Amino acid sequence: MTGNLAKAAKVVHCSARRSRVFFIKCVWQYCVNGKECAEKMELALNRFSMPAIRAIFAPMQILDGTAVAAHIKAQIKEEAAAMKASGGKTPHLAAVLVGNDPASEAYVGSKVRTCEELGFGSTLIRLEASITEGELLEVVKKLNADPEVNGILVQLPLPKHISDDIIINNIDPKKDVDGFHPISQGKMLLGQPGFLPATPYGILLMLEHYNIDTTGKHCVVIGRSNIVGTPMTVLMSRNSNPGNATVTICHSKTTNLKEMVLSADIIIAAIGRPRFVTADMVKEGAIVIDVGINRIDDPTRKSGSRLVGDVDFDNVAPKCSYITPVPKGVGPMTICGLMKNTLLAAKQA
Ligand code: NDP
Asked: Residue of the nearest CA to atom 39 in ligand 1?
């Protein structure tokens, strides 16, 4: 034990302050709590890495998107009210919904309700799925020209006969609160201030809220979409915290996916496949961010279905230091990212 403690002291000396504080608490517990804790301590020292020690001593923590979002929304609401009181603008979001896909209806509905909750203005424009690309472009151009509108979001996916890229490229970059326009993405890549894509932004806000140190960690992002996976890799590797991680991006052509994911300190799953990440792919003490939203059949539910993520939550959670649930994890944080961008757009208008 003494030898192990000496080794531990050496590692702890090189670790981040929070890890050191945590380790000292563990030693203290060991001293006062006796045998059970001594056994845990022995196990921890044998495994000998901070995440492993944390996993043994500290229970897994759920990253509660609903609670964090409530906290952030209260701040946004206060800031918007102060802006209005000092003669500034009331942030106004225009949401465009094409067709009547139930999931898109639900997402847009919740964004509009959040605007009301925060004292923002909002406009919901519903369009038939049969609308042409040209007609939709006209709607976007009108919103670009409307001085009352600070933020525009066109809910994706659009019907197949309309190009997402053409529509997004025609949104005024000053109103691109979803952060999908090439100018927003380019600024993000270059580390310049601008609108961050709403979901990755929400994930950063969550990591920040829980004070999770990502510096030097190996972060594996599964999925390379323009709206989640790819921007996530850029943000996790940038020179700030959250960030400063060593990032690996995986996709459907990755041949050694399991090996990659097993080596991750942080896993960000944005795949769109129910419970794809299983316990045998996750190392002990990992931080798991589940972006996926998948509807699966569930005859025990009145609705006959329920939402699950891209991670097999029940079996993966016991191995993690932190994990987001689905629902009530990343989803509410995406809305926070969108609302923070809308507030920023109004400030800059
Ligand atoms: P996309 O379909 O655009 O991208 C999915 C990515 O996953 C692709 O890069 C694809 O690889 C990769 N992938 C698919 N199958 C595999 C596989 N077997 N192994 C490894 N990689 C694979 O999805 P999005 O990024 O738009 O969304 C991902 C998930 O996140 C969805 O469930 C979506 O509903 C959810 N989502 C949730 C949000 C929230 O607020 N919580 C917001 C946005 C999305 P390849 O490129 O090679 O095809």
From this structure: 331
Atom of ligand 1 nearest to the CA of 224: 9
Sheet harboring 266-269: ordered strands across?
Answer: 61-62, 320-323, 286-290, 266-269, 218-222, 246-250
Ligand 1 atom closest to 329 (CA): 41
* Domain locations along the chain: 17-57, 61-67+196-333, 89-192
From atom 8 of ligand 1, which residue's Cα is the shortest distance away? 223
State which CATH number among 3.40.50.10860, 3.40.50.2000, 3.40.190.10, 3.30.565.40 fits the domain covering 89-192: 3.40.50.10860
Residue with CA at minimum distance from ligand 1 atom 35:
292
Whole-angstrom distance, CA of residue 284 vs CA of residue 51: 7
pLDDT value, residue 265: 97
Would the pLDDT of 126 be above 80?
A: yes
Average pLDDT over residues 143-168: 97
The answer as to CATH 3.40.50.80 being correct for domain 61-67+196-333 is no
Task: For residue 55, name the pLDDT band (cuts at 50, 70, 90).
Answer: low
What is the distance between the alpha carbons of residues 156 and 185, in angstroms, rounded to a whole number? 17
User: How far, in Å, CA of 28 to CA of 84, rounded?
Assistant: 51
Ramachandran class of 144: left when φ > 0, alpha when ψ lies in -120 to 50, beta otherwise: alpha
Residue ranges around ligand 1 (CB below 6 Å) = 199, 222-225, 227-229, 250-254, 257, 270-273, 291-294, 330-331, 334
pLDDT on residue 59: 74
Q: Which residues are catalytic?
A: 111, 155, 178
β-pairing verdict for 151-154 and 92-98 = parallel
DSSP classification of residue 254: -
